[in-house]
Specification:
Helix content is about 40%, strand content about 25%. The protein is an alpha/beta fold. The chain has one domain: 3-Layer(aba) Sandwich (Rossmann fold). Strand 4 (about 105-110), helix 6 (about 120-140) and strand 5 form a beta-alpha-beta unit. The radius of gyration is 16 Å and the shape is globular. The model has no long low-confidence stretch (mean pLDDT about 90).
Length: about 200
């Protein structure tokens, strides 16, 4: 708890009105890779509490469309439509597609993380499984020039996930933002240009 309270990114998030320190990871990656453009349609998988959705809504502007989805509830955000549920379940996926209204998706964001058990092998396997589902969703819903930013963790299963992403997209790079805790094995894969 002490580490969280004294974390400079937590303090900055509070000062700037972001819902989580994770907002700075996305801001940093966007500064380097230019993820956002005005008017984009963005889907934020595993959005609660909403830090990434806040950034996406700011960056895409009034003409943009941000759809956030999570199994947890999320307080409303200006410019963000929220769908509660598990996007891997068919009825929830249909609702998400209804909200999108047939619009192609420009950017899929996934900062998904499983509820951690403390058992490293279990947590790693569950994390990789979530990342794989995000990749599958992006491959099915992105427009030809679209992009996916997905969180993953280095370890067992990561090489296979990386192969899957490289097989499905034209360009793939990895990013470890400074806002990630140094001891964390988390990293982000940025994939552009889904192969059809």
């Amino acid at each position: 708890m002490q580490r969280h309270v004294t974390d400079p990114y937590v303090q900055r998030a509070k000062a700037l009105g972001y819902r989580s320190r994770a907002a700075f990871k996305l801001i940093e990656i966007d500064a380097r890779d230019r993820l956002f453009a005005a008017g984009q349609t963005v889907v934020d998988l595993g959005a609660a509490p909403g830090g990434w959705s806040q950034v996406a809504a700011e960056k895409t502007g009034a003409r943009g469309r941000v759809v956030a989805i999570d199994v947890l509830d999320m307080s409303p955000l200006p410019g963000v439509t929220f769908v509660r549920g598990d996007f891997t379940e068919e009825p929830v996926l249909r609702e998400l597609e209804r909200v999108l209204g047939g619009r192609p998706v420009d950017l899929v964001l996934s900062d998904l993380s499983p509820n951690l058990t403390g058992v490293a092998a279990t947590d790693q396997a569950r994390s990789i499984a979530l990342a794989e589902r995000a990749v599958e969703f992006a491959a099915a819903h992105l427009n030809p020039g679209g992009a996916l930013l997905v969180k993953t963790f280095q370890g067992v299963g990561f090489p296979a996930l990386l192969r899957q992403v490289r097989a499905g997209f034209e360009r793939v790079v990895s990013r470890k933002p400074e806002a990630s805790r140094s001891r964390s094995t988390e990293m982000y894969l940025l994939a552009r240009g889904p192969r059809r």
